[in-house]
Design a protein that fits this description.
The protein is mainly α. Helix content is 75%, strand content 4%. Strands 1-2 form a two-stranded antiparallel ribbon.
Length: 225
């Protein structure tokens, strides 16, 4: 057989092997579709939050008006006593604690301990609801002090628009996560995942850990820098 014929035969066999591989419908990476789709969603959401935070930094650097100092604008009052940044620190602690309960829920989910998984998910949702309630209180105090998306008596006008947009968008994520957690918790309690497996607990855990991680950056950018 000539060299050309041999090359043709090898090429033909290689093409047949490639077609066979594609037609076999084999899964290259053993990752459930639900988890893969959650990762894709989180990557896209990462770009959105990154754009928001970069936009915040750009507005802060380029504004001609003085940017309001955190010690002044976040010196909220409760019962007549000033609480500078303590409320936000508690909010951060609550959200970080919720990541711990969520991790424990995933652990017990894979152990198929429905009772502990259910209550740990509920505890995570309760921490999330507490965070949103405290954020609503923070918003109400800032609004009462005159901060609006279009005006800010403490300095640069852009602060109000960027602050309410970024923290509000994150708050919507936390609120959606609380609803998602409660829905999964009810299904766990009713035994819906007994036969299907508890991968859904890990999937909702990925979302929740992402929301917590984003808050760490928001906390650093808005309240510390």
């Amino acid at each position: 057989m000539s060299e050309a014929a041999t090359a043709g035969a090898v090429g033909h066999d290689g093409m047949d092997g490639l077609v066979d591989d594609w037609s076999a419908d084999k899964q290259a990476y053993h990752v459930p579709w639900g988890k893969a789709m959650m990762w894709i969603f989180l990557v896209s959401d990462t770009f959105i939050f990154s754009c928001f935070l970069v936009g915040y930094l750009h507005a802060r650097i380029t504004t001609t008006q003085p940017w309001p100092p955190q010690s002044e604008i976040f010196a909220l009052s409760f019962g007549g006593a000033p609480i500078p940044l303590i409320l936000i620190a508690i909010m951060t602690f609550v959200l970080i604690t919720s990541s711990g309960t969520m991790a424990m829920a995933v652990n017990y989910g894979y152990r198929r301990d429905k009772v502990k998984t259910f209550w740990l998910i509920c505890a995570t949702a309760a921490f999330g609801a507490t965070f949103v309630s405290m954020q609503a209180f923070e918003w109400s105090k800032l609004i009462a002090e005159g901060v609006r998306p279009w005006t800010n008596p403490f300095g640069a006008t852009q602060f109000g628009s960027v602050f309410f947009m970024v923290t509000g968008f994150h708050g919507l994520h936390v609120t959606g996560g609380v609803i998602y957690l409660l829905w999964v918790a009810q299904r766990v309690k009713r035994g819906y995942y007994d036969d299907k497996g508890f991968e859904i607990v890990e999937i909702v855990g990925l979302y929740w850990h992402f929301v917590d991680l984003v808050w760490v950056f928001i906390f650093a950018f808005f309240y510390l820098l």
